[in-house]
Amino acid sequence: MGFATLTLTAIDCPEPRRLAEFYAAMLGGDVKGDPGDEDWIDLYLPDGQRLAFQRAPGLRPPEWPRADRNSQQLHLDFDVEDIDAAHEQVLALGARPLDADDRGGERGFRVYADPAGHPFCLCRA
After folding, report:
1. N or C terminus: which one in the chain shows less Cβ crowding within 10 Å?
2. 3-state DSSP call for residue 117?
3. CA 92 to chain centre
4. In sequence order, what DSSP letters do the residues of 75-116 get, joined into one string?
5. The whole model's pTM is what?
6. Is the pLDDT of residue 65 over 90?
């Protein structure tokens, strides 16, 4: 039995509001922040989880799939019902494909970078 509860996942990025809005368009939820403070923005998800976005002006995104010079540190996985439709939607939101060849569905995921360069996967639900 653990002794702590996960409160949120904080993601470094150069533009917190822009990245929060990217994920809000994917996941739904409410983007909130203190007026006048654009260094920390929260995304409250419909299921009660929270993602936070914290300003990191000099952020260097990881190099996919390398891990020898600057590791991923973390990545997010998202289950989707229709991976082809989700592919088009994340591209329209500003994501870029890193490894979108799921070998005709043999591999159940595709890898993308969000607008700040963080890797994330769309996974077949």
Report:
1. N
2. coil
3. 15
4. -EEEEES-HHHHHHHHHHHT-EEEE---GGGTSSEEEEE-TT
5. 0.88
6. no
